[in-house]
Amino acid sequence: MARAGRRPGPTETREQIIAAARRAFAEQGYDGATVRGIAAEAGVNAALLHHFFGTKQQLFVVAMNFPIDPAEQLPLLLSGPPEQIGERVARLFLALWGDPAGRAPFLAMLRSVASNEQAATMLRQFMVRTVLARLAEARGVPPLRVTAAAAQMIGLVMLRYVVQAPPLVDATDDEIVELIAPVLQNYLTPE
């Protein structure tokens, strides 16, 4: 059992927890990894993990080097007029990917999930549980429609920022939003 309280001497505890979390998420997926298990592997009390990171979801975001917590963006997407959610989703994706510093972790993640089944499982479990299922429930649409909207956006960012297809690379965000927002709106509007 891990000791309670702060360790004596210089602290590298935060980094040890992150390393333990990365191993646990990689080996067990998002759903299989537990806060207690990660804390035990790091040699700390679970309360210390909560002190540093809050929730398992927040620890995952830090451990995977996400530039933002996708679940924290959900209230922003849901606020505002329902008939403009397609535009808000498109603008959020373009803003996140348009920033070169924010784009790097996303690119690394995409490359990882494309070539590693464990990474794909981990990201899939996290995204389904913390974003896609919640968005589907909040909008009153089937999960398939929300997943299709996510696929639409991932395809867009792949072509614009990874493949760098000239029509998309050269287009302004407003031009892309004008094209893609109605499609997203259709996916995210209850029938």
UniProtKB/TrEMBL annotation:
Q: Does the keyword Aminoacyl-tRNA synthetase apply?
A: no
Q: Which Pfam families match?
A: TetR_C_16, TetR_N
Sorted UniProt keywords: DNA-binding
Keyword DNA-binding attached: yes
Instruction: Tell me the InterPro entries matching this sequence.
Output: DNA-bd_HTH_TetR-type_CS (IPR023772), Homeodomain-like_sf (IPR009057), HTH-type_TetR-like_transc_reg (IPR050109), HTH_TetR (IPR001647), Tet_transcr_reg_TetR-rel_C_sf (IPR036271), TetR_C_16 (IPR041678)
> DNA-binding region located at which positions?
34-53
Task: Report the superkingdom from the record.
Answer: Bacteria
- Residue ranges annotated as coiled coil are none
Boundaries of every HTH tetR-type domain copy:
11-71
**What is the protein named?**
TetR/AcrR family transcriptional regulator
- Species of origin: Amycolatopsis acididurans
